[in-house]
Amino acid sequence: MDFIQIGEFRLYHQTNELIKGEHSITLDPRLLSLLTFLIDNPNRIIGRDELQDAIWQGSIVTDNAINKLVANLRKAFCDDPKSPQYIQTVPKQGYRFIAPIVVSAEDNAPSLEQSAAQKRLPGRYILLGFVLFVGLLGSLIWQHGGAPMAQYGENRALSRVSGGKLFPVVLSEQAHVAFLNVTAAQGRRLWVADYGSAGSALPQPIKAPDYHLQKLLGSQGDHLVFKGYYKEQCGWFKARLDMAGQQLSPPIEALYNCDLVYHDSIYVAGSDVIYALAHERRFEHKNDLYALSFSSQITKLPTNLEPSWRLAYLDAHPNTTQLLLTAHTNDGNSRVLSYEPETAQQVLQLSRTGLMHGAIWDHDHKGIVFSSSSPRTQMYHQAFTESEPTLLSSLSDKICCNIARHSNGVDYIFTTYDKDIELQWLETGFVLDNSNGLDRSPRLAHTNPGVYFISDRSGSSQVYYQRPQAQARPLPRLPEHVRLRGMVLSPDDELLLINHDNHAMWLIPTNEAQQGNNLFFDGYIYQQSWLSNSLFALSVKQNEQKRVQIYNRQMQLVAQLPEGWMTAHTDPTTPQYVYLTDKDHVLYRFPFASILNGLEQAEGEKVGQLEAFSNLELENGKVYLMTKEWHELVRYTLSDEGLQLLSRQDIGAYMGFDVRDGQVIYGRKAAFRSDVYSTVAR
Q: How far is Cα 480 from Cα 467, in angstroms, rounded to an integer?
């Protein structure tokens, strides 16, 4: 077998393997493209622009994408960037491939005598062998759908505009893809990109007068189907997309009904039906399957799932009436089922450990395409007849849950996003060990200097702790599927209360390598706070009611406050009081014992009116809150006269903040990237 000797490694092109002794790694298509390009250009400085043209073939990518690809190749070679043996970084210029390269072959080549004998084979045997080979190849191609398997690895960006990209819909007749682009200044706007061009055409915005679009579902000819508002009425709409005039026309059909809470939906053009996963407002967790039509019909379809499973995604394929349903468990497992709407027959197609996001039918209706839970930067194809998935795309940015089939019958269109969130001090503090891994939700330690925070730097959400003048270190590792929404630290620094996906709470010891206790809610947790070393409060929405519930360290419910109270907090300097807010954001003060003995008989006092907030902290007679809409840090002082405004500052800290001894730390967005991509199959 031919190979290329690269330093101490051998590269086998037949298998795409890089081997050194016991160490072996199979290179994905993009890593192989980079390595091949470096081999063809040894000992020469190669700039980023040249790498972008060679590897991404004109598609615009970020410097972070190039850095990550080079870093992954270095990792494959076990190469130290500080003392490189393979890839050398030339500051401000690029990279140089410095490893010795030798093209060679295995020692099992035939002898000269054997070669001469083979050359004297009669021509008829050669012809017979060729005929048999062609027949076998034709049989294999026929069995696999009439075409050889496409090779993936390349991607092309379709949306070179700023903003967050959502819900791509392929408009096959116009060779365009429609998507929603979200910016702070303009909200959600409709855009279209030309996927039929070579990549030079820029996407164009579409005027949508009187519309507020929430989600794109599909298309029918030159009509777009979507959910949103038209003239302030909520519903589902079908409207003509005028590509020449770049405008969305008034709806030709509409279903004005938004009584349910919808989590995923798809439009099937052949039957003119919308299928949706939704639930009644009093059930925050369990989704049901519904069929909607523009004739004002909404029908719940029967499904059969165990109580621990919830429906997360659905898809439809134009060549079949079957739906594709993806179900998750809270502990990170996935199932994919086919579902026949007419008969309610559902068939389990595959099960997988780990959460699959945005799963859709593949082009041949013989498997699925999905993005992985960890890392969220990869997209896979899983055939129902295979045990292992095939990698379709790997990027530096996270692949979101919106995937669509390309009209060419081979490629897939998907959206990405990536946020750089870093921790910052309001005033100068110790140097923070930030990364580009979404560092957020900081919590300052009480007993020793240091900060706990959530980060995705390892590829999945984990909790880290940093002391001054030290690097951040991970705490006991959490499962890779977790979606950490926030956390609070007990006053004695022994326990972290962590919100998982707003449906579960984990109580994690900070000094033990164990997971700790967890508590699941068939509801929505929107606030959490420690009241003492032994009690914490959760604000939970369940059955359309919002209540404050009090738990102990064993995660046992010990009290529930009367309806109408929204959050509970304490000030460490005045532990004899508890502070409550109501639905109008009015702050009250009660004796601490009253939350256990009953508020009805307690004598509380009104402190003052607050603004709507996303986070609230109290310390040393001051209230710190993050406004819900404008991400401003507002500070009040508590006095006998009520609340006195001290300051207001825009810090964009929508990713959490904390305060200790008057020092504020917060998570702030440093950068944001989002694009619509298409795979480029070869």
A: 25
Average pLDDT rounded to a whole number, residues 450-469: 88
Sheet holding 345-353, edge to edge: 309-316, 323-329, 333-340, 345-353
Alpha carbons within 13 angstroms on the beta-carbon side of residue 83 total 0
Q: Could you check whether the bond before residue 81 is cis, i.e. omega within 30 degrees of 0?
A: no
Report residue 575 CA to chain centroid gap.
Answer: 40
Token digits of residue 302: 């029967």
Neighbours of 654 (CB within 10 A): 19
Instruction: For 242-281, write each residue's pLDDT tens digit.
Output: 998 999 999 999 999 998 989 999 999 989 999 999 988 7
CB 18 within 8 A of CB 72: no
pLDDT digits (tens, 9 = 90+) for 328-367: 987 778 999 999 999 999 999 998 888 889 999 999 999 9
Q: Which of 278, 330, 279, 281 is nearest to 542 (CA)?
A: 281
Contact 334, 351 (CB under 8 A): yes
Asked if 645 contacts 388 with a C-beta cutoff of 8 angstroms, the reply is no
- Can you give the pTM of this predicted structure? 0.70
* 678 within 8 A of 156, measured Cβ to Cβ: yes
Which residue reads 């020692």 in tokens? Answer: 107
What pLDDT sits at residue 665? 94
The amino acid sitting at 303 is T
pLDDT of residue 372: 83
List, for residues 490-541, the tens digit of each pLDDT value: 999 999 999 988 888 888 888 864 556 777 776 788 899 999 999 999 999 8
Task: Give the C-alpha separation, 39 to 86, whole Å.
Answer: 11
Scanning 602-664, the segments in alpha helix (DSSP H) are none
Nearest in space to 286 (alpha carbons), one of 265, 303, 309, 304:
309
For residue 111, the model assigns a pLDDT of 37
Pick the closest to residue 218 from 263, 178, 175, 252 (CA basis).
178
Q: What are phi and psi of 342, to 5 degrees?
A: -70, -35
Q: What is the number of alpha carbons within 13 Å of residue 77 lying toward its C-beta?
A: 27
* Cβ partners under 8 Å of residue 522, min gap 6: 283, 284, 285, 286, 503, 542
CA distances from 240 to 178, 237, 252 (A): 13, 10, 8
Q: What is the DSSP string of 660-679?
A: ETTEEEEEEEEEEEEEEEEE
Coil, strand or helix: which one is 552? strand
Look up tokens 């093209």; give the residue: 103
- The Cα–Cα gap between 677 and 672 comes to 16
